[in-house]
Amino acid sequence: MAHEQAAQQRPEQTDRGPQAPRGSSGHSGGSGTTMATRAGAYAVVVEDGKILLSRWVPRNPAMQPSWTLPGGGMEAREQPEDTAVREVFEETGYTVELQELLGVSSFYIDAERRVTPGDGLLHALRVVYRARVTGGSLTPEVDGSSDDARWIPIADLHQYPHLDLVEVGLTMAGLEVNA
User: Fold this and answer.
1) pLDDT at residue 94 tops 60
2) Is 91 helix (H, G, I), strand (E, B) or coil?
3) pLDDT tens digits, 113-158
4) How far apart are CA 95 and CA 86, in angstroms?
């Protein structure tokens, strides 16, 4: 019995890193390591074989800018759907209509790989939607977390440094990933 209880308290291991034990609050990885959780919402917007991406620019100068799905962190009391629509507009200048929830991606970032190293383990919950453009014009964000927005041919994605979220979103959308 004691062995079963101890096993339930240890973090489960997956190919993506430690998972919080079932029934835990998620605030500790089980070894005393603190863990923050960040919820974000993102959109997969594809037209004519091209995907709409924004170029994320990390605050940590040791990290390289990378292309990612438009989206970002949820604000206080904001619903994920509202976050996705707001963030797509802020980062790309487009208004979008969400078509469907594609899924939720759970991703862990070790303390040393965080934007601010030493902030502890981060659990990123990424809500991903399929969306279509309904208005606006391509306009990159100014003074934000991204500095460019483009329609990138999916077939050429391998030529652009990008975050894993791009491939996660394309896979969720049932689109072939050539990156």
Assistant:
1) yes
2) helix
3) 787 777 889 999 999 999 999 999 999 999 999 999 999 999 999 9
4) 8
**How far is Cα 105 from Cα 169, in angstroms, rounded to an integer?**
9
Kindly tell me the burial class for residue 151, based on how many C-beta atoms sit within 10 Å of its own C-beta (0-12, 13-18, 19 or more).
middle
Say what the pTM is.
0.80
According to DSSP, the β-strands at 35-47 and 50-56 are antiparallel
Write the single-letter amino acid at 10: R
Q: What's the rounded Cα separation, in Å, for the pair 56 and 120?
A: 21
- Residue 123 in contact with residue 35, Cβ under 8 Å? yes
For residues 55, 70, 40, 108, the Cα torsion angle rounded to the nearest 10 degrees is: -50
Among residues 37, 10, 43, the alpha carbon closest in space to that of 109 is found at: 37
Residue 71: name the closest of 98, 108, 48, 37 by CA. Answer: 98
Amino acid found at 49: G
DSSP bridge pairs for 97: 132
Distance CA 171, CA 32 (A): 35
Those residues with Cβ within 8 angstroms of residue 128's Cβ, 6 or more apart along the chain or in another chain: 41, 42, 43, 44, 69, 71, 101, 102, 103, 104, 105, 165, 168, 169, 172
Cβ-based neighbours of 2, under 8 Å, separated by 6 or more: none
